[in-house]
Amino acid sequence: MTTKVPSYEERIKWFHKARFGMFIHWGLYAIPARGEWVMLQEQIPAEEYAELAKKFKPSKFDADAWVALAKEAGMKYMVLTTRHHDGFCLFDSQVSDFTSVKTAAKRDFVAEFVKACRRGRMKIGFYYSLLDWRFRGYHVGKDKDPGSVEAMVQQAHAQVRELMTNYGKIDIMWYDGGWVPELPREQIADYWRSRELNEMVRSLQPHIIINNRSGLEEDLDTPEQHVTASRPGRGWESCMTIGDSCGWGYIRHNPNMKTVTQLIQHLVNAAAGEGNYLLNVGPKADGTIQREYVERLRAIGKWMKVNGESIYGSQRCPFGGGIIGTTTARDNTAYLHVFRWPGEEACIPRVGNKVKSATILATGKRAKVHQLPNGRLFLRGLPTRPPDKHDTVIRLRLDGPPRAVPGDWMTK
Ligand code: H79
User: Fold this and answer.
1) How far is CA 140 from CA 49, 133, 149, in A?
2) Which of 213, 327, 205 is nearest to 278 (CA)?
3) 22, 34, 37: which to mutate for ligand 1, most atoms within 8 A of CB?
4) Could you tell me the distance, in angstroms and rounded to a whole number, from the CA of residue 18 to the centre of ligand 1?
5) Among 176, 212, 242, which is best to mutate for testing ligand 1, by the most ligand atoms less than 8 A from CB?
6) Atom in ligand 1 nearest the alpha carbon of residue 35
């Protein structure tokens, strides 16, 4: 039987509506609490690292609580590390003993996560690291230890099959760890046999969105730790940590956290480029999410309650915000995101539409609209101080889809 794979446009639709998701990095590395790279960075031998599995008994793990927090933040999907580079699986695998089911926890956390997501109507993404540091062949190269590399690749294929078979409908396959030391990018797909792998994924999950980290472009670009738009029509998602860029897994003391304002502005910038923002949390070893993250996510959620219409399903707006901020759009509406509040009057250049109304979402109040034939739009009677300290959104109802006039004021 051949399974029909829906078109890219059909598969990516929900993703564009969603715009905001939660990334979760959780595994054994939460115990030492020095980030998910601790095994490699501190050169911990695999046998010693494996001891952590004896202590991994997360007493407070509650997938519904994770989902509730994501919901509160206004997120629409969640991506969990089913396995990171250390090779430890949070799911029941028949091809490895290094799993949370076969060690102290005796639980299939992926299964619990999936069930909670379904209860909370969250779309579901599986992060899966192709590489597994425990295999010598990965480090020394295929030439020096072909058997080890073959075993690692076979394990990856078998585990991806398990993930795509045993947990119902999955919405995103989020590969990572596809890079190989000394191997040029073009050869990565051959190393992992990614064509065969992704064909299998699509035959088991025809609706799935696959990211670009198996050495093949597939459906999604994945800028990491920065917000950079792909070309129009191409799906993309920026993933980012709240703390310093070196830690996705829990770090005990990581004081350099982004502010709520910074996080909201990243989300808005992603939405302005028709992209998504996948914001990471690294829960503690007991399964709980640290207070600093919870507070930030709740504050973002408060902002999203008022301003979410400018984010979900956002489209590019052909005129920008100038120095004061940026713009998103939806159908015949443009949203001006004012990051740097100008005071009582705002000027937006190159607006090619007639603006029918301008409303501050935070207060519900209207601004006076004044337009010049050269595209300069003036909003007047604004409050002196920013009504929203993070990003004040002004909704502009237009006479049609947003258009820009040429920026040729000096040459005309
Ligand atoms: O899963 C997260 C990272 O572990 C993984 N991708 C995201 C989503 C990732 N792997 N590699 N990288 C990101 C880039 C490599 C960064 C490194 Fe480092 C710089 C590796 C060693 C120094 C980051 C900073 C990891 C440890 C310190």
Assistant:
1) 20, 11, 10
2) 213
3) 37
4) 26
5) 176
6) 26
User: Which residue's alpha carbon is at the smallest distance from atom 23 of ligand 1?
Assistant: 246
Q: Whose CA is nearest to atom 15 of ligand 1?
A: 246
Q: Phi/psi of residue 369, each to 5°?
A: -105, 130
Closest among 314, 277, 242, 294 to 70, alpha carbons compared:
294
**CB-defined site of ligand 1, < 6 Å:** 25, 36-37, 176, 224, 239, 246, 248
Number of other CB atoms surrounding residue 363 within 10 Å:
12
In this structure, are residues 286 and 59 in contact, taking their beta carbons and an 8 Å threshold?
yes
Read off the pTM.
0.97
Could you tell me the mean pLDDT of each successive run of 10 residues in the chain, 412 residues long?
Answer: 82 98 98 98 98 97 98 99 98 98 98 98 99 98 97 98 98 98 95 98 98 98 98 98 93 95 98 98 98 98 98 98 95 98 97 98 98 96 98 98 91 80
Atom 16 in ligand 1: residue holding the nearest Cα: 246
Can you read off the two tokens belonging to residue 64? 């519904």
